Amino acid sequence: xxxxxxxxxxxxxxxxxxxRLANYVxxxxxxxxxxxxxxxxxxWRMVRGEWFEGCYVFATDEARDEFQRTFTEGAADSPGSxxxxxxxxxxxxxxxxxxxxGWDGFAATPRS
Length: 112
Known about the structure:
The chain is α+β, with helices and mostly antiparallel strands.
């Protein structure tokens, strides 16, 4: 499977940026990626005060390559960069070795 990681540093971000990011994901970003053609799923991850990232799994090389190309071109102006105040520190394609669904099932939610 075809992964992509996009990570921003929060080390120099303004206080409260984590809540602004969570609100943006819940109110805008989750809906943008739900049902996106070529995307199997996206997970948003964060360690407060350290980093925020999007982890993507794509269905095809073409879908990942196109998303990575267009995202990289506009990364500095992306909503995440605007909220955080800096561009991503990492945009990296990777291989997803496996995915397991636990007993409690998969829950697609805009906020934890």
